[in-house]
Design a protein that fits this description.
binds S-adenosylmethionine, single chain, 10% strand, alpha/beta, 14 helices, seven-stranded mixed sheet, 346 residues
Length: 346
Amino acid sequence: MTPEARAAADAALAAAGADHIPVLCDEVLDALAPCDGDVILDGTFGAGGYSRAILAAADCRVIGLDRDPDALAEAAVWTPVYQDRLSLKQGTFGMMDDVMKDGPDVTGIVLDIGVSSMQLDRPRRGFSFLRDGPLDMRMAQSGVSAAELVNAADESVLADIFFQYGEERRSRALARAVVDARAAAPIETTGALAAIIEGVSPSKRPGQAHPATRVFQALRIAVNDELGELARGLAAAERMLGDGGRLVVVTFHSLEDRVVKRFFQQRSKHGGAGVSRYAPDTQDGTAPSFDMISRKAVTAGEEELTRNPRARSAKLRAGRRTAAPAHPPVMTGLGLPGLVISGSSR
Ligand SMILES: C[S@@+](CC[C@H](N)C(=O)[O-])C[C@H]1O[C@@H](n2cnc3c(N)ncnc32)[C@H](O)[C@@H]1O
């Protein structure tokens, strides 16, 4: 690298660090405990906040994976600073073992589930009801968009999506409003969808969330098959990690946290401390494939909450891989809503 290119990459790195505050970063480092020589997979690279913190904490290597090509393109200006310690790959963490099949063995995996600020803040990505743009919401920028889903799905499917993925109590009335509106004209923008929902919702009281919040969350989860990805990603991580490898997962809402909690419950020692030594090892009697690093979910402390209110709903769960074989990748018992939406993007 020329001195000029190095100076430009250093400046871009400083700007990236100043721009983005990763949630629960210290707690992620504590749970992941990176050591010299480790190879860590950051399965949700985003703005690279965790990756940079991990690279600063030990003389290790990081592989940054993201399904969003924009996330990787934006990082290309500063990643050269780390030379061969940081490499980037595009793909989904649900297929991380496939993406990594020719790569080195990984000793730790971190997942920070959800949407990035960059995705939310750009109107053209169509994630936010606060910024008008095309109704898109596809993280990978391929597959079925939110507009296609909203304009084509049966009313009952839309109602199920709003209820199951948005926990929206008025799901049926809102699905009806969407279907009535699209009969007049296709719903193409985030602003148009937000106006339809607002038009049939009681007026918002001070301090209350926008009436379209849950519908937008639900559509985003459906378009990106986020819960299916999470379940596949956890199972892939279990297959990839060897004895002592660490899996750290940060989630932002209860549907995701339930999947992570149940995954670790199924795979760690049943009953915790004090249980009879004759009790089965795990709920189904197989050898535990994870030891829990902390028994309860870790949440943000007061200091972080003051700095970054977005951390309020964040929960971290982490486990250390044992030498036992991986469990079969069964999706039952993880609390996944039984919704099948054909054509969701990968
Ligand atoms: C909350 S952001 C991660 C922020 C990151 N930890 C940081 O510190 O900058 C989530 C990122 O994960 C990506 N993502 C979400 N689901 C994914 C999946 N199934 N596979 C790969 N990347 C995914 C999104 O595109 C987004 O860039």
